[in-house]
């Protein structure tokens, strides 16, 4: 790895998981695939949370949601703790000029994130969200970046966070939520649904519509990479393509099963990172901040909970993760779940009476959510254990299986130790909503 200081461009999406051609899905994403072919793709990169703001907050701070404070959605009153340091702030200290284009969804006030320049809408309030969604469409974010690079109005080194709205559902109460004339859907008859979803017409139709959004994301990536080349800075720019959690379908978004916490991570740094590399090691999205600091030969603060994977890219000795952790606490409902995943097993623990499968409102009110609503019937077990080699789609709960009791005990102890070590608020009982002070009735003596 060269010691030169690269520009860094991080492109990130909504609700897309690993639903990309280069990850083996049945969709053409040639521009994203090209980045993977000339860079490194991480096969087992996972988010700390199966929902937007908590996952993005971890990517921004290198810390777990219940540690940095962002355990629910930013527009619902949850926020980073006052002392949290973000990736732009770290990079500012390293001499970077930092820019925000498009979506962030980590803070209601983007000034909190520490960017030098904000090139996008500033508020997350419900009243302006429809306008912000249009500004943050992939084609608009890409056009803004193209103009930015053409203008040359930037200093190197720069860090750019470029976030796009796709593939979030648009109109959850009207059709699939992916329907929009500006996107070109694929033919439902050509769709091969992921194994965790039933092969039914409504599933195919909605996946085909979601394909239209993903094609728009891929087109935007092509626009941006060509703009980097035209500006003559592609060789000195580290491009990071990533996502924050799984697709907006039942048993994915909002779920700590693998389809909910899976996330893409692709990194391209021409002439520095070898092309066509696919890493199978477990990676968490809290690992990105320490890796970038390590790349810049900056000390990694002790408070950062992720670990650098730079040595995976340099060929030096790498000590792989034995496990990673995931969590959800608040979304549109209270869903307190904690999970630990190794390369072989997944253990989940629920801390409330929950439906068998929690389905977020934007998915539940869609056609596929209404069709598959029976997934929620029944009560979720408080403990779940899955053998990921024998059962990669996490269908058979082995929690009471005699042959797996040693695994159950070991992973339960590891999860408990992590919760204690990180002072997880669930250990003290239920976590109140962010607006609890507003809804708490007045008490009289």
TrEMBL record:
Keywords noted in UniProt: Hydrolase
Domain Sulfatase N-terminal: 16-296
InterPro entries: Alkaline_phosphatase_core_sf, Sulfatase, Sulfatase_N
GO molecular function terms attached to this record: hydrolase activity
UniProt entry tagged with the keyword Acyltransferase: no
One matching Pfam family: Sulfatase
Keyword Hydrolase carried by entry: yes
The family this protein is said to belong to: Belongs to the sulfatase family.
PANTHER family listed in its UniProt record: ARYLSULFATASE FAMILY MEMBER, ENDO-4-O-SULFATASE
The protein's name: Sulfatase
Protein source organism: Halocatena marina
